[in-house]
Known about the structure:
Beta Polymerase, domain 2, 7-stranded mixed beta sheet
Amino acid sequence: MPKKDKNDSEKLTTVIVEGILRKKGQQVLSLNLTKLPNAVSDYFIVCHGNTKIQVEAIADSVLDETIKELGAKPWHKEGFENAEWILLDYVDVVVHIFTEEARWFYNLEKLWADAQLKKYQDKKNNKEALND
């Protein structure tokens, strides 16, 4: 089995964030889980949209960008039926796209509070990462 390259997860994370920001995803952040024991993946990417339609559009944008830029398709996807929480599982990177209400109800940021957090924002198409 080929050795997993840490940069692959980081490249995938970058492309996912670009797809999210393209559709104006809100409060975009990544949780680096690599240093946590028994973590299910390397990174969680979390964001929310203002409506279910926007949540679907964000998910579609992520799917389009990852295929176009990296030829990567998710191993599993779910949540498109009600679009309150769409999950795109790329194995090493898992994307969680919520409605705002669902995001704060499930509060993954608090659940995984031990993870290193990186916030992203899009200032007039000038993407910027903010570290905490």
